[in-house]
Amino acid sequence: MSPSVARGLLNLQSLWIEKCPSIEEVITKEEQQGEGIMTLFPLLEELYLLRMPKLGHFFLTKHALQFPFLRKVKIHDCPEMKTFLQQRIYVSTPSLESVNNDDELKAVDLNKAMFNSKVCRVPLAV
């Protein structure tokens, strides 16, 4: 989907994408915009990316992203995914409580996470 569609889904709270063998990114290349922080899915609380062998990243962007209400992220069986965003741009997740069912983790920047290609664990810095 395009970034403008993702910004327009004002009430979306949970996003599950599963068993998509050919998907390489969730959000397509961004439209030209000014500088600043971009908010996608403004009320998103849960994000699940499961069993997508070609998924390389969530979004290719030059902007910092914020997900103000994102609490849970699960990424499983996505062997090509090495970072959340291809450009290694800052991803703000101030409400994040759990990544891959590990509630001991707390993160400010999802993109600092590097994914293990077999199990997609996310070691995050506090």
Topology:
Elements: H1 3-8, E1 14-18, E2 25-27, E3 37-39, E4 46-50, E5 57-59, E6 64-66, E7 72-76, E8 91-92, E9 98-99
Protein name: Disease resistance protein At4g27190-like leucine-rich repeats domain-containing protein
Domain Disease resistance protein At4g27190-like leucine-rich repeats: 4-97
Organism: Solanum tuberosum (Potato)
Q: Would you kindly provide a written description of the structure presented here, covering whatever features stand out?
A:
With 126 residues, the protein is mainly beta. The protein has one domain. The chain is built from one helix and nine strands. The longest helix has 6 residues, at 3-8. This is Disease resistance protein At4g27190-like leucine-rich repeats domain-containing protein. InterPro entries: At4g27190-like_LRR, LRR_dom_sf. Pfam families: LRR_RPS2. Residues 4-97 form the Disease resistance protein At4g27190-like leucine-rich repeats domain.
